[in-house]
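pinging the channel bc i need a second pair of eyes. not urgent but kinda urgent?? the chain im working w is below, pasted from the shared doc
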Amino acid sequence: MIELIRKKSVNSKDDILSGLTVALALVPEAVAFAFVAGVDPLVGLYAAFMIGLITSVLGGRPGMISGATGALAVVMVTLVAQGNERGLAMENPVENLGLLYLFATVILMGFFQIGAGVFRLGKFVRLIPHPVMMGFVNGLAIVIFKSQLGLFTKTENGVKSYLEGTELFTMLGLVALTMAIMYFLPKITKKIPAALTAIIIVSAVAIFGNLNVSTVGSFIRDGGGAGLEGGLPTFQTELFSVLPLNLDTLKFILPYALILGAIGLIESLMTLNLIDEITETRGRSNKECVAQGTANIVTGLFGGMGGCAMIGQSIINVNSGGRGRLSGIVAAIALLCFILFASSYIEMIPMAALVGVMFMVVIGTFAWSSFRVLHKIPKSDAFVLIAVSSLTVIFDLAIAVFAGVIISALVFAWENAKRIRARKRFKEDGTKVYEIWGPLFFGSISEFNSKFDTKNDPDNVEIDFIESRVSDFSGVEAITNLVEKYESQGKFLKLIHLSEDCKNILKKANPKFDEIIIDDVDDPRYYVVSGENVEEF
């Protein structure tokens, strides 16, 4: 471990200080997402510790922070609720069985994620278009901002209401002070992390000023938790002694495991891409998939709620100078130390300080350049950007990214479908030649078929594909159908300059293509004939 840290850390001091900052920011996030999922705060904190530590050591993106996230929590809440119902409906009723179902689902989710890494599926995230990426960061920035607004509340007699009067202005003042320190301190010195300094200063102001503000401790208690203090994570033996290990359980948790695994990998790999751009380095997506899966398996076995990469904390880390694996390791170990030894001190930190830090993350995350380029880029790209941003806020990240990729793919297919062209000419012997230009694939089949006049063409026809590429089986099928149309009218057709893979498919499909496909031909781009009738349409 020591050798690994020594080799991978770019700057140990920056990594350690940024790791401490991230650990402080992880506490309210992990607790809040545990409440969303309907489980005890320690389940979220244990997940943040275990996932953060394992992915920092084994992951493919040094400097990226992982832990319990809201994108997964909103799915888990239904799983836990239905699991509890199943437990109460058993012949021997079991309370809180939903938590064990959650742990089992997280373990299965981890195996799916390892499989994605082993089969090298992580590389497909590189195919996500840039407008989708911009929409993703914009939508996520809005989601982070909205989540912080919920902290401007207080709970009295079990009733939650927004702050008013002096309490509201005090909260806003501390948030503004945090943001001001984070903005101006780097202009004076970059030797100390601005976020950690801001948290310490604002905490001191609130404590020594005896200000009546919400703290980490009051936040946990208002949500129904007993406090931050806890012990080490323990192996969940009840997974094997209480949880029914049968086909019915597998059928119940399988859909949730697939959904959680997909959401977790998408958010992790999208965050990996974003950190790549910020640091101008390149992470290893498949290695990150394996690390995320391994972390979730361990987390499920030791009582954590599972998780994935956290974009907010990752940006705090890299902006604070944390670029190596040490920063994530320090954040995870510091979080465990908070739980074991310093819970009473961490509970004194005002929520305003952490809200201010997250507001600065929002400002740094949002792609403000999208406003400048929105009227300059193609309308389809602008639509994708806005759609992904909106869907991320309305639904979740996975739906938004899938929708954005599908829209972009359809637009790309439509644009390329219109690019196919055919130039026709006649040889001296009367043979009609069609020279095809552009890609032949499922989207351009209709346009391709419209180029041929099978009824009025002469008896001898050639189709030249030297400037065309047959991209899929739909294109091969279109060529086959065209050949059959000419043959049904007793006309003789030749195909020249087909790609090797297309020729092989056609010849395997029907031996008659051995005679129709001509291999030994001169390149028509160097073919000169005077008096030819050439027409392009």
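so The chain has two domains: 12-383, 421-536. and The longest helix spans residues 247-279. — does that match what u expected or am i reading it wrong
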